[in-house]
Design goal:
One of its GO terms (molecular function) is isochorismate synthase activity. With 450 residues, the chain is α+β, with helices and mostly antiparallel strands. The protein has two domains: 162 residues, no CATH class; 270 residues, Anthranilate synthase (4-Layer Sandwich), CATH 3.60.120. It is 29% helix and 35% strand.
């Protein structure tokens, strides 16, 4: 596909010499495979992100980081202000009738204690503006090229179009060879569960805490994230799927959980807490769903999450609506208790909302402050992006952020997997350990080791 002369002339005619950045977007007439755009041949090693929405209506791949906002602290307001300033300096040009699809992508570490050596490639707050963005939305494909005004080259659009047209050939993945597969501090983790349960039965100060644990897998060869993402897509999970690269590190999450979505002055969020394993027997599954809906521990845990979210959003919303009883959310291997929540917004700062909502009791605990304090002082290792908010803001300050569970951090030959579960006063260490084992499954399958 060659960029027509009249389109080039249209782009040139719309360039504003007073702006510091130019972002040009065209609609593509073919369907590139976005996963394959992560290949290193595109010459932006360590500078890719990928995002697929839960309903698959939105899929995008960012290639090359034109700008990075990276802070050593959790700076929600500074990141938001940075994006507003960029937009004021941005000359947007689109050669189609739909909205411009440029996104500011990134996230925040779980807490201020998260920035340890294994997470050093990421900032505590880290957002990127892609030089090239390929977007699939509602069946249409778009290419967005953004650059400094004094470096903008219209021929770069044609160069990337040529790359996209040749990147669709599928490469067969090879079977990974595992050198070592080990749980990290598994016995210590079980002992910690027993400890916190004992504390809860002696005092009501802490009523729920989510404890995470890790598994580390070392491979003979470097982990191929393209293969991992493709396996995740092929699994047909009803989940978000994302990748965020920085330096030598690659973070992947296949999460069912949305933190929030902001669209046209509305807040959409949900509570997901309470889990039971799904089987291949549909009759048995009906019984399991009934069991989950009537199980006091899971209902207790779910109610905490709903109440906490309602409390957290009251200061910046009005007209809050939610179902009084949870329904069942079905994933490929698990059933979850689920409650949908929506409200009218009083603020357009999506990152302020992210800050207020994170972490929900589904990933932190209840009461929130006491639970986070316990996690920071007692949990083994640091969470980094596990359970943390990752997502995007667009040019209209709409956006969506997920809770990045079912996740792993990849560095060369090593993948560190994360999972967690909610601990309440009647929890048992062995059953909670088994639940976290189940939650490793999506990433184990992505890696091709089960």
């Amino acid at each position: 596909m060659a960029l027509r002369t009249d389109l080039k002339q249209q782009i040139i005619s719309e360039i504003d010499g007073n702006k510091n950045y130019i972002s040009v977007e065209i609609e593509l007439q073919y369907q590139p495979d976005l996963i394959h755009l992560l290949r290193e041949e595109i010459n932006y090693t360590g500078q890719h992100f990928y995002y697929k929405s839960k309903d698959s209506k939105l899929e995008m791949c960012g290639i090359g980081y034109l700008l990075e906002a990276r802070y050593s602290h959790l700076e929600h307001d500074d990141i938001y202000e940075y994006w507003q300033n960029i937009k004021e300096q941005l000359n947007t040009i689109k050669l189609h009738d739909e909205k411009h699809h440029l996104k500011f992508f990134g996230g925040f570490q779980f807490s201020e204690h998260s920035l340890t050596n294994e997470w050093k490639d990421y900032g505590m707050s880290h957002f990127v503006l892609p030089k090239y963005l390929v977007t699939k939305e509602n069946g249409h494909y778009y290419l967005t090229y953004t650059d400094h005004s004094n470096k903008f080259d219209i021929d770069n659009i044609q160069e990337v179009i040529n790359i996209l047209e040749t990147e669709n050939e599928k490469i067969e993945s090879s079977e990974p060879v595992v050198v070592e597969n080990k749980d990290i501090q598994s016995e210590e983790w079980k002992a910690l569960v027993t400890k916190v349960v004992s504390q809860m039965n002696q005092s009501v100060a802490l009523q729920k805490v989510v404890l995470s644990r890790r598994r580390q897998i070392e491979f003979e060869d470097r982990v191929n994230v393209e293969d991992a993402l493709q396996r995740s897509l092929d699994s047909n999970e009803s989940s978000y799927l994302l990748l965020f690269e920085s330096g030598k590190s690659q973070f992947i999450s296949q999460t069912p959980e949305q933190l929030c979505q902001i669209e046209d002055g509305k807040l959409y969020t949900n509570a997901i807490a309470g889990t039971i394993l799904r089987t291949e027997d549909e009759t048995k599954n009906d019984e399991l769903k009934d069991e989950l809906l009537n199980d006091s521990k899971n209902q207790f845990e779910h109610r905490y999450v709903v109440d906490s979210i309602i409390h957290d959003i009251q200061s910046f919303t009005k007209h809050i609506e939610y179902d009084k009883k949870p329904t069942i959310l079905t994933n490929k291997h698990l059933y979850h208790l689920y409650t949908k929540i929506q409200a009218d917004l009083l603020s357009e700062n999506v990152l302020e909302i992210v800050n207020q909502l994170h972490p929900t009791p589904a990933l932190g605990g209840f009461p929130k402050v006491e639970a986070i304090k316990f996690i920071e002082h007692e949990e083994f290792g640091t969470r980094g992006f596990y359970g943390a908010p990752l997502g995007y803001i667009d040019l209209e300050n709409n956006g969506e952020f997920v809770v990045s569970i079912r996740s792993m951090l990849v560095n060369n030959h090593t993948a560190t997997l994360y999972s967690g579960c909610g601990i309440v006063k009647d929890s048992e260490a062995i059953s909670e350990f088994e639940e976290t084992d189940l939650k490793f499954k999506p990433m184990l399958k992505a890696l091709g080791v089960m």
